[in-house]
């Protein structure tokens, strides 16, 4: 059953049997049926299904199911097709871009029969796929998503692009205006320095002098970096000096005791 949007339609399904069967209408894909008073029902009984001021939302297959309590239940399938002229929807009608930017423009169209879709440049030339433009249409039912990919925006691209949808019932277009913006900076801000790592420094020069060891100058790194010392190595050095002082102390006490015994 093919009808124009806005008209009235009646779907009929006659059934016979003993006892007399009842006919129930349902949508094949599930969902509700919108009646003339905008009341929505999951199913409706009767040999006829009347829809007033049909819209594209009514489009799809319907099942009339006949049953009288004696198996099996029988059904028939009726597909309702609604014709309407194209409509175009645009989410962003004003888009800013800079030269050299990769950009995607998008429109959404609704129409049935399925429309022919295309894009035009600001110079009103029809756009074909080439090294700088890619045109893509993604259909889903009576909806089509129209995409235009601009691989590198050029000076002649600033202006109004049109997305056009046309079928046997009419033609509709939408406009997206592309305007110039400054290219965002890509360099780091001046005066930014790498944060240096703070470390602990331990001076062991007095320990070395007490142990009779020669003090050596500490190694220095890059002039731009802070002097760093491995904390674990410094700790190990402190443990070594502690054992050294302990051994020296024991040696000194032993020497004093030996001297006392000799006396």
Write up what this structure looks like.
It is a single chain. Among the domains are: 2-85, Sandwich (Immunoglobulin-like); 86-180, Sandwich (Immunoglobulin-like). The longest helix has 32 residues, at 231-262. Helix content is 14%, strand content 39%. The model is unreliable at 195-200 and 216-263 (pLDDT under 50). Strands 1, 3, 6, 8, 9, 11, 13 and 14 form an eight-stranded mixed beta sheet that branches. It has a four-stranded mixed beta sheet with strand order 10-16-15-12, with no helix packed on it. The protein has a two-stranded antiparallel ribbon with strand order 2-7. The termini are far apart. The protein has helices spanning 205-210, 231-262, and strands spanning 2-4, 9-12, 22-27, 33-34, 40-41, 44-45, 48-51, 60-67, 74-89, 94-97, 103-112, 116-120, 133-140, 143-150, 159-167, 170-180. Strand 13 and strand 14 (143-150) form a beta hairpin. The protein is elongated. The chain is built from two helices and 16 strands. By secondary structure, it is mainly beta.
SS-derived structural category: mainly beta
Write out the CATH superfamily name of the domain at 86-180.
Immunoglobulins
What portion of residues is helical? 10-25%
DSSP strand count: 16
Unreliable segments (pLDDT under 50, ≥5 consecutive)? 195-200, 216-263
Protein name: Lachesin
Pfam family, one: Ig_3
InterPro entries: Ig-like_dom, Ig-like_dom_sf, Ig-like_fold, Ig_sub, Ig_sub2, Neural/epithelial_adhesion
Biased composition (Basic and acidic residues): 192-222
